[in-house]
């Protein structure tokens, strides 16, 4: 009598949790992603999310720059501490605080919107190209067992984008505390990269049950990749390639985790 027993049914579940996450290191995923990124098809794929994010940024600036600045100016006029700081700086013969603060806040609101749009486009439309590229070369043995991949990907992109936008706006006042500006930016972009890309990296190949196991057991690795991408995101030149490069890193990490999960299955005779 033959039975298929997965690792989750064994007492070695903890062993796989540690070994499975460590079987393919984050560093290895980045190394493979760098090699894949140099392929002509992946270099060309960089253009799509970048151009969409660029067009989105220009449209947002054209449509919302003036109304947003007017609204922020009206709100700032009701902030007592801003008015006191403004009066003190003018009395000292310095520059007007509001003249510089309001445009900076407006940019801090509009640019992340275009950025998350580019990331969502990469997750939904570019990730299938990425998966097709890497699976043909390094993961031929990983069969596609995913279901409703497009619907899952679109829904994931929508809720992550909305959560990112809401969290970014709600925590924006905390940027007035100097260390929080960088810390919050890193956290929210790490959240966006991690939550957006990890699902799309395996949704076409992993069954729903496998996807749940991989996300649970490799949560730390997915977040580590998101944190590194978020730190790279602080460098403006990286904005051009990050949507596709992050997709490649998550694809390599996720597919390798799925490959290890399936290899870990034990057949008892």
TrEMBL record:
It is a multi-pass membrane protein. The keyword Membrane applies. It is found in: Membrane. The chain crosses the membrane at residues 42-65, 100-131, 152-170, 176-193, 221-251. Keywords: Membrane, Transmembrane, Transmembrane helix. Coiled coil: none annotated. It comes from the Bacteria. This is EI24 domain-containing protein.
């Amino acid at each position: 009598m033959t039975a298929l027993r997965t690792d989750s049914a064994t007492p070695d579940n903890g062993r796989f949790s540690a070994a499975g996450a460590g079987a393919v290191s984050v560093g290895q995923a980045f190394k493979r992603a760098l090699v894949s990124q140099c392929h002509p098809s992946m270099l060309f794929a960089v253009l799509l999310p970048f151009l969409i994010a660029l067009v989105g940024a220009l449209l947002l600036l054209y449509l919302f720059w003036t109304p947003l600045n007017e609204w922020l100016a009206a709100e700032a006029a009701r902030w007592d501490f801003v008015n006191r700081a403004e009066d003190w700086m003018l009395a000292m013969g310095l520059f007007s605080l509001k003249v510089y603060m309001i445009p900076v806040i407006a940019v801090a609101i509009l640019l992340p919107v275009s950025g998350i749009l580019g990331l969502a486009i990469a997750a939904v439309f570019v990730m299938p190209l990425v998966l097709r590229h890497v699976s043909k070369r390094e993961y031929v043995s990983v069969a596609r067992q995913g279901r409703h991949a497009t619907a899952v990907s679109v829904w994931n992109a929508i809720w992550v984008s909305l959560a990112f936008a809401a969290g970014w706006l709600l925590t924006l006042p905390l940027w007035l505390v100097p260390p929080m500006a960088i810390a919050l930016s890193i956290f929210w972009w790490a959240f966006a990269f991690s939550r957006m890309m990890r699902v799309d990296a395996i949704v076409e190949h992993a069954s729903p049950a496998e996807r749940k196991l991989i996300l649970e057991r490799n949560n730390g690795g997915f977040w580590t990749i998101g944190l590194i991408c978020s730190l790279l995101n602080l460098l403006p030149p990286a904005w051009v390639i990050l949507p596709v490069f992050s997709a490649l890193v998550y694809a390599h990490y996720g597919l390798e985790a799925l490959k290890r999960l399936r290899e870990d299955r034990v057949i008892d005779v």
